[in-house]
Amino acid sequence: MSNFSGNGYLDMELLRFTTAGSVDDGKSTLIGRLLYDSKSIFEDQYEAIRLTSERRGEEHVNLALLTDGLRAEREQGITIDVAYRYFATPKRKFIIADTPGHVQYTRNMVTGASTANLAIILADARKGVVEQTKRHAFIASLLGIPHMVLCINKMDLVDYDQSVFEKIKKDFQAFASKLNIPDLQFIPISALMGDNVVEKSEKMSWYGGPSLMYLLETIHIGSDLNMVDGRFPVQLVIRPHHNDHHDYRGYAGRIAGGVFRPGDKIMVLPSGFTSKIKAIQGAQGEIQEAFAPMSVSMQVEDELDISRGDMIVRVNNVPRVSQDMDIMLCWMNCNKLVPGGKYTIRHTTSEARCVVKKIHYKIDVNTLHRIQDDPDVGMNDIARISIRTTRPLFFDKYQLNRITGSVILIDESTHDTVGAGMIL
Amino acid sequence: MPSYNLNHLRELEAESIFVIREVVAQFEKPVLMFSGGKDSIVMLHMAVKAFRPARLPFPLLHIDTGHNFPETLRFRDNLVEHLKAKLVVGSVQDSIDKGRVQEEKGVNASRNILQTVTLLDTIEACGFDAAMGGGRRDEEKARAKERFFSHRDEFGQWDPRNQRPELWNLFNGKKLQGEHFRVFPLSNWTEMDVWQYILMENIEMPSLYFAHHREWVNRKGVLLAKSDYIKLQEGENWEKLRIRFRTIGDMSCTGAALSNASCVEEIIDEVAAARQTERGSRADDKRSETSMEDRKKDGYF
Q1: Interchain pair B168, A308: CB under 8 A
Q2: Model ipTM value
């Protein structure tokens, strides 16, 4: 009877992607078109931004106003924070983390990229691969986004010329060989005219690939999470105090990697005790298989002392256990990183203190060059550092698992989140 | 070969349950704000899942404007009894009687803004350090910038320009004495997701969401239900056609929509075809372009 309540609609995949770009590269136009063509912009929203655009004397309806929601943003015509946007097609539901291209760019893009499956990077066909294109690509690869799409935009302004597209593609490939990008695609588009955005363009018959929307709807994301290494950080312990469940102990948390089943032999870190999984409660009751990113609650056969911050893993596949680690750090605070300074560190569900042992180098995000002779790590800097924690943490390399391989640093007096780290 | 994929609703659910559990792990005295609207009903449904077979480890908080739909209150009380949950009610009428706030005057007087004071007073009086709300980022442009864990200073204010970065699933709920957090487990849900989830999980909903006959008045495009709190102006008439509510708030400012949708499936079709946002019928959002941001900065939901 109903299209939207049918099984297909209740059973879509979720794709999270980031867009990055500055004011004039057509990013807002592209997002506006994706939202508009998927009917995700409502009449009252459109009417509100039309009136605002008109009042400001702008020639066209300014779709950037859809994402720039705060008063200061609208007044100054800038984006100051990550904005999240939502749309769905009959095939998938999408979450866009839209990050600004200028002010505090790195901090916001790192934030938006941390949970994304895919990054859309825009290049202007007239300008080719510029510093900003490289910067975007570097950060996306640093944050381990599995899929990257370079959209070569404004093809209408270069007469839809194939050689322009091929040249930019080649230039970017040369640069990208230095980065870790598992899946890289190129699409020639005109966000303004709609070429290759939702429908394939008739003006670029030389292009044999998919439209951007088709790519977003079909790209394989089933392998984006680590389904090999079983990792279950314990969030809290469920202990019902009523009599029906007197001895019940449920270890609740979200699977960070791999697959767990009742009967599996498991080890608890840091104690090293082993046991077997007795039962797993999922969102729909008892289940026979739990995998990332499910939120579940596990019961184990033996009575063990397990609490928040512990990690349940498989006996034959344990993460690194250490007090020392090297991380690639993105600094996010106006107070600089203090060499030798102490911070609170949060990793999965555990928390410790750490001391900054060494700052190895900073990275120039525009050239990827290492800066060895400047130890000052300030807002938006990216640096490789060594830290030592007060007690051992159980972790993987970020490249193997984005959940067990990431940390944040918290200032001990202000409680601000000041740094984000990817474990090397 | 099994496929290890969660569909979008299960993935959103897993994320929300993680956030709700994180609140209980990180805070000493959390509370779940329950308005009787669909978002808070879905949030509560997942909170129950997050801790079963144990009972809810936190109370529910309802800010009662005194202008509630009677259906909402009945629904709330039944659910609280069924879950054996604890309910705290913050009363706007009390705040008015104590002189903490003054009733608005004029045709469009509403207690919407007054709720903020009652909410902050209740949070302070009960010592709550984290209040979970059903706010979603797709609802309104200021909310699109909201964090899952949203820091509030000692005056309960939100500083949107100076929010803590929030990465991966590492939530930082650390705070100074007197500060608190608002937490939004449904941040990534859309109106459509909420209804699809209600259908998938077969969650009972208040009758107000379904089409029914009721008297109402059309005030500048907002259909307001007949009640003691709405006085007819010149040229206005009570009308009676089938309507339903897309959001449920205070009777003085929650607009209805003409509708024949009598079951969840039909509501989903209606949402899919809708050309107006759900808050398009909220008179409280229409006061100015940034009225949501302004209210949120002061400590609104």
Answers
A1: no
A2: 0.92
